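Subject: two folds for Thursday's group meeting

Dear M.,

Sorry for the delay on this. The cluster queue was jammed most of the week, so I only got both jobs back this morning. I'm pasting them in the order they finished. Each block is the input sequence followed by the predicted structure tokens. Could you check whether the formatting survives your parser before we put anything on slides? The first protein is the one we discussed after the seminar.
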Amino acid sequence: MTKEISHINTRMLTRSPLKAKIVKVDSPTLFWAQLQNSHDDFQELIEDLTRRMTRLHRQLPLLPDHEIVAVKEGRRWQRGILTQIRKDGTAEVDLRDWGRTIDRPCYEIYILEDRFREIEWQAIPCALAYIKPDPAKTTWPRQARDLTKFLIERREGWISILGHVDELGALVKLELMNESGREIINIKDILVDSGYAQLTNCLASVTVHEMTAFRYLCCALNQREEESSVSAPAEDQWDAYRYLMKLRCVTTMEERVHQHTSTSSKICKDCYKALTDAEKYICTPVFAHMLILEDSVRNQTNCVICRKIIIRIQPAEECPSCIEAFVECNKSHLETGWGVPAVSTWI
């Protein structure tokens, strides 16, 4: 049996400031940090892995039952988890030491030997505590995401853990040194002063967007396991949320919309009526509310004939009905590009 790689348990970490490097940023309430106190051990592991795989990678081909893998990125080899294999022979690998995913041909993915599985995954999912987006917004605006990315990505600073999301995630205070190196700045204060965030007295309200969807998935996944009295592993919950972030909520703005079966081009009801019987034969109705992979949506919001806007697209994590559909759906329907209908039980 292959050895699993554990995660850093944030409940076991000190509440004192921890030196860290921010390695990936999605928003003020979802970014990944590597702790400085394990930096040397991790770098030594990556150097050993690179030397080992440079010489012997062809002796370690990927096997169907192996999910923990080694892939080359630039001049170095990295650890990862295989999250998706596509029909075109490519695969998605989650680099959990870095909080991001990459795509590689399957023939460039190899087994990770047990000796490189001793150290925990290094990237800790974090959220800034005691802030929330503008109440008029359902999510962080693009400007807030971009500003956060500009301010903290690939920067070193100090995180103070104020709360937890299970054992994997942390609600934190983040401080960085300014460019002159003479002053410590609080990232939360910058976002508030810029008008992109609001202060709140409630620590948990930091989860208004990303963490709300994540917590819903936690509850839903754990509910499925109640009969066996075994909770869904926290890493599975994070995997589910990371997958949800790739999905889009698609709703039609007309009573009936059709699409071409081969090109997925959308056609409004008036233009559909004007088609010949042969043209109608190769079109299918579109569900009024769908959950679809981002790659399959292709930002097609207009009728391909008259260019009228007939489709609305938004991130799936903003839609409670889509989150509910995601928990219950057959994921293979998403992988094939067809999507699944989002039938709401929400009022």
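Second protein, same layout:
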Amino acid sequence: VATPVWLDDGTGNTVGLFRQCTSGGCINANQVTQGGLSIFGLLLLVFAIVANIAGIFMRGKPIILWIALALLYFSSMFVMSAYATWGVYSRDPTLYGFATFPGHTSMGYSYNLCVAAHYFIWTALTLLALGIGY
């Protein structure tokens, strides 16, 4: 979420969730939808981790692990929604105003990290589901 390169044109112009940087400097350009979805997804992930840790120490209460499972699921949905809506945003070059052709922009490493995070959340979700016997 905090990494600044969600979209890159290869010449130093980048767009992040909270800043847009060109050769003239950086300006605040909040991508409200994607920023909100990804931050909420990360908050749900933190709560899921806390619930998993609590579930480990409270063996007699399996409901906590079920709550962690639900939190991981919704976390993955919010993270996926963040990068899916970013994909729609990145297809329209008039929204971010680079002076390059649309074919010259590419997804930056921040977008790739978000996709990888979604994969690892689903991996954790699968392992937790197997662990609680679902």
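Two things I noticed about the second structure. The two ends are 31 Å apart (CA to CA). Helices lie at 32-57, 63-90, 109-131.

Cheers,
T.
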